[in-house]
Predict the structure.
Amino acid sequence: MKSEPAAYSINDLLRDKTTCWDGVRNYQARNFMRDQMRLGDGVLFYHSNILIPGIVGEAKVTREGYPDYTAWDPEDRHYDPKTAPDRPTWFMVDIEFVRECRSVITLTQLKEIPGLEKMEVVKRGSRLSVSPVTAEEWKILIHLPQWG
DNA sequence: GCCAACGTTGGC
DNA sequence: GCCAACGTTGGC
C-alpha cells in the first residue's frame, strides 16, 4: 500500500497502531481491498512522492473490505457526490502496524532484485495505490537485510 | 518543478 | 462509443 508520508507515514501508523485506509478513489485499487485482501494478510507499506521512495514497513489487515464512509462526507477531501447513500462505491480495509524497516528498501533497489520485475510498484508509470504482492515476491522482500 | 503515464470526463 | 481535453500521480 502506497502513501505519501506527508499525508500519512509509517510513523503515523506506528503512533496510531491501526488505521482505516480511506480515500482510495480508483476502481482497481478498490477492487483489491474489497475483493482480495483478507484478515491477517501481510501489507507492505510504501512511501511515495518523496526523495527516496520505497518500502518502509510491514502491516497486516485487521478488517476486511467495508464501505469508505468518507465518500459521503461533504467536508471530506475525498467526498464523492456521485455515491448514493445506500449503495457504496468505495471500500477500504483496516490495517495494523507490524514493524518498521531499519532502513528503507528503496525503489532503486527493488528494481534491481530478480523476481520483483512484475511488481506493480516497480513498473514505470505505476499509479495504483493498492496492489497485490505474490507469495514469491513476499518471500523475497521479507528476507531482505533492511528489516534488521 | 517538470513531465510521462494514465484514469476520468464530457462533447459529439 | 470514440477520443480529445483535463486532472492526478509520482519518479526524477
User: Anything to note?
Assistant: Residues 26-28, 124-127 of chain A lie near DNA strand B (CB under 10 Å from a C1'). Chain A has a mean pLDDT of 95. The CA atoms of residues 17 and 97 of chain A lie 5 Å apart. The longest helix of chain A spans residues 27-36.
